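A favour, since you know our structure tokens better than I do. What I am after is a single protein written out in full by you. Could you add the entry underneath, on a fresh line?


***
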Amino acid sequence: MKNKKINTTLISCYVFAILFLSMININTLMAQDKPIESVVKSKPVKNTFDGSYVIDNQTVNIPVINTMEFALQHRFGTINNGYSDFYGLFAGANVRFALSYVPVNDLQVGIGLCEDKMQWDGNIKYALIKQSVSGGSPVSVSVYANMAVITNDDPFVDKLDRISYFSQLMIARKITDNFSLQVSPSYTHYNNVEGYFNSEGTISPKMNNDHFAVACLGRYKITEKFGIIANYDQPLTQHPSNNPHPNISFGIELATAGHVFQIFAGNYASILQQTNNMYNQNDYLASQYLLGFNITRKFHL
């Protein structure tokens, strides 16, 4: 069903985020009133993460200006069918191709195509704050947003009903040279959700159009190129029915100067973040988890 009411909750969240970020920068603004010679310019921390993704979530990282990045994301089927589909490896898979570019410092724009319902998405990510080596911000903060549209054949679905939106505030800290953590509250909106005829003969929604969640992710580097990665996604919104399950995932990462390769196990089967957060019905405790991998390749133009 369509939700035509203005989402005041979303507006309030963004106002709060703006005020919060303004408070973080207050020390920097006060420092500008001091004599130039007393202000020490601190360098930003580099490589909080090696790539733009950790398993199912974006990271605060944005490549340097004029960098093009290609991403291939793949999810196999769940392992609970056992040998019949070789633990999901021969089951139906989900794949997403994505291409992004950094036209100016701290801004990344991109486009992607996901096999699930042939969803195209346009996305944007911007670095608001960068963690400093000393004397500056203790964390890095970036924002990410996308708009996706379903393009598979379904004559009964209106064009506007095919659109969904996702936005996320990412707050990360490189705690040591080897260990990084990130917390990411998010908001998802679907223009249309499935409904049913209630006892009064009217249509009631099975889910809300809006969904809030929070993700926590981290990476620990064992060597310069090899690391362990983990991700947890917790839904916050309670829906009338079909409440999504949390996602628990972990894996390994191999990074070089231009490539990042991740292989992992988790219970998110979709790839677009709004689909995962809103509709995940895989229960990790029921062995409904699967294998997946991400491959990214960066080109400096």
